[in-house]
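in:
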């Protein structure tokens, strides 16, 4: 099952299932939109069994690609979850997952602009595997965890490092500016993606490769992360978990490299499509 949505940031969206040829099929006859409160167990079961070719082709020509699922109630992130990224940051490998949140205003479409404030000095990038929750999870075991996952998405965990690391040590400050969480273009269910712990990933800035990695080097895998989070909170359908980044971020380079207005960021994960954003001054 592969889900996409099209439409402007405000207003209605066209929910789509992709067929085997990648053609977007209009799924609005099944569900009005892929919003969290509409993705009930019954609807998800129906979406999993429908033949996309039985649905009409969606009229998406020229339309904006939206995030594949509507606004999540929560965006959780895992810090330093790749051993080689922890090394480039000069930090020890964590013994437990490092958790932080991004504000809901960060959530945007995969190709929406990265917004640049005049108060920013160290704007950075992070290609990450995102996990979308499909049903409530509270205090579940690692063995149960993947049954609570709706699917996987591509995420750019955009970060302002000065705000993150030099303004009192609270990571959320550097992670929560509008459009700091481009998500999509497609949500792919676990049965379609195969083994989520063996996906290649990359990120370019202005055509130069900055990040190359694979989810097989994650310190804490998806099942562990979902189970761990559920120990502290009740995960809700539609919640997004961004699971960490491989090495190659701007903060880890010598000399360090920071995004500026006009820069273009492109990124992708095997099976989850690609994104391209332009950094635009407010």
């Amino acid at each position: 099952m592969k889900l996409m949505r099209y439409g402007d940031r405000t207003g209605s969206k066209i929910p789509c299932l992709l067929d085997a040829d990648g053609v977007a099929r209009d799924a609005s006859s099944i569900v009005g939109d892929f919003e969290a409160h509409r993705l009930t167990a019954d609807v998800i079961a129906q979406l999993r069994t429908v033949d996309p070719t039985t649905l009409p082709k969606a009229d998406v020509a020229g339309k904006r690609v939206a995030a594949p699922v509507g606004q999540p109630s929560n965006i959780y992130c895992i810090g330093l979850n790749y051993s080689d990224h922890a090394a480039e940051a000069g930090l020890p490998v964590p013994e437990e997952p490092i958790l932080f949140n991004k504000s809901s205003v960060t959530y945007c479409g995969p190709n929406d602009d990265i917004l640049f404030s005049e108060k920013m000095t160290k704007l950075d990038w992070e290609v990450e595997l995102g996990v979308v929750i499909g049903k409530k999870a509270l205090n579940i075991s690692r063995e149960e965890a993947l049954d609570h996952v709706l699917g996987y998405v591509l995420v750019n965990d955009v970060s302002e490092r000065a705000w993150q690391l030099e303004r009192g040590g609270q990571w959320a400050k550097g992670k929560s500016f509008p459009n700091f969480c481009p998500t999509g273009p497609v949500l792919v269910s676990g049965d379609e993606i195969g083994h989520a712990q063996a996906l290649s990933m990359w990120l370019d800035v202005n055509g130069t490769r900055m990040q190359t990695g694979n989810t097989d080097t994650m310190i804490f895998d998806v099942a562990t992360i979902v189970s761990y989070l559920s120990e502290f909170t009740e995960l809700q359908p539609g919640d997004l978990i961004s699971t960490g980044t491989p090495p190659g971020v701007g903060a880890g380079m010598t000399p360090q490299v920071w995004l500026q207005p006009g820069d273009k960021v492109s990124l992708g994960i095997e099976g989850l499509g690609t994104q391209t954003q332009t950094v635009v001054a407010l």
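note: The first helix runs from residue 41 to 49.
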